[in-house]
Amino acid sequence: QVQLVESGGGLVQPGGSLRLSCVGSKILYSIMGWYRQAPGNQRELVAQIIRDGTTTYADSVKGRFTVSTEDPKATVYLQMNSLKPEDTAVYYCYARSLTRNEYWGQGTQVTVSS
Length: 114
Known about the structure:
The protein is an all-beta fold. The chain has strands at residues 4-7, 10-12, 18-24, 29-37, 44-50, 55-57, 65-70, 75-80, 89-97, 102-104, 108-112.
C-alpha cells in the first residue's frame, strides 16, 4: 500500500520559515507536490514538481516557496519563507505515479500568527 508521510508543520510568526517534508513509498512518481486547504476554502495547488524537474507554483507563493525532490525522487520538500498569516492552512502532500494513480498524505497544519 502506497503511503505519503508528511512532517514539518507547526506554528511560526509572520516572516518566518518552515520546511515541510513528505516521504513516499518506493515507487516511481511522475508528479509530486503540495496542496493546502484553509477553513472554508477549497483545496488549492501550492507547488508541484514533475519528474523532469519542471516546477509550478501558485501565484500567491512565487518567490517565497520552493518545491524540490530527493533521489530516488520518493521524497518531496516544500521550503516556505517569508510566511504570511494567509498561508495558514492544512498542507497536503500529493503524488501521481507513472501509472497515473493519485495519492494524498494525511495533512499537516501550518499556522502563521504572532
